# Entry
Amino acid sequence: MTIEEIKQLFNNQKRYFSSYATQDRKFRKENLKKLRTAILQHKEDLNKAFFMDLHKSEFETWSSETGFILKEIREHLKYLNRWTRKKRVPTPLFLFRSRSFIQPKPYGCVLIMAPWNYPLQLLFTPLVGAMAAGNCVVLRPSSKVPHITAVMEKIISENFSPEYITIVKGDRETAGNLLRQNFDYIFFTGSVPVGKKVAEAAAKHLTPVALELGGKNPCIVAEDANIEMTARRIVFGKFLNAGQTCIAPDYLLVHSSVKEELVEALKKQINRFYGENPSKSKDFTHIVDEANVLRLRELIKGLKIVTGGNNNLEERYFSPTIVDNIRPDDPIMQEEIFGPVLPVLTYTKAEEPIHFINDRAIPLVVYLFTSNKKWQKQVLKETCSGSAVINDTVMQYMNPALPFGGKGESGMGKYHGKANFETFTHYRSVMKKLNKIDYPIRYPHYSAWKLNIIKIFLR
# Structure
């Protein structure tokens, strides 16, 4: 779209929002139900599109994309009446004859920008929150998943007017033109470098933003971990979507006493999940494009490959890979891997993994496998991250009661469940006072006795 077309679209949404139609509770619920129906109607189209773009299985498509969004819609429909009610709050005595309350209001026109790794979920999940809050929405999907984007565009265009919700496709120039508009809120999911550019563009209009970014998520395995269960859950979380998951374990910090046992257990679980040749597995997702296959090749160059390392540029395939003898200054430890490559580092003293984590940028998640409650409390106390998980991986994402988001370089802002609604809601503070009685104490001319009374009220 040209800059003129984007401006026109933005102005049309502004006018539509000013009609107050989107703020009606009935309107919000009807359109959430309409979105749910449309997703179900296009379920098979989505399954085919996900296989074409990412070689993703029907199970993964439902569990991490389609079904996830439907659950989010159910959550919002269930609690929307409660969330949209104004909330009475206390009023202090010196504001006698006043009532105070907090009024949930939509921001207005919001921009949602999503990446390619979970293209449906990461575009439509915040859309659900924005719709429930009563906003107009411009959706910006990734250009790297054309078949999925085509289905999403069909879902939106067939069910919603562009003045209310629309999808804008295009290149980086189009994205830049969108960011030049004075949106009331911007929700971005993607990489740290692009997130910084989004924040910079938003700052020009003082637009609030939510940035769901990523980072290198550490996974600590203590000497008392249940090795078989730990290996199973690590392999699941790491190689889900071929490691193209912002909350995947990025690297392991394993106690030296259990390292060899764990590595063997990881290899065993990879074989159990995906077979001896994962390229033939219908359950193993492929890499999004050739450029990322080449990037992963460079990351493992010169490293000790314990298992995997096979890849096919034409098929965009990269096998589940474990690499060992990693040094902290290796290139693979300098950036988020975002692929099916798992580095293994070791430690011997309990404080080492904590220092290692704290010496680096704040991760999106810290994972810890141990039965030692004292060690669990210590890691939770002495490390910082967007979220933390003990004895599992990635499944925290499935709990709508847990707000999801990062801190520092891993992001800002939260969503999922109620937090999703709150992200797209401005909570306006309102005080309503009767005008029959007025107290002269607050007005000039001031005197000592007035000051003494004010001091009493403000103690």
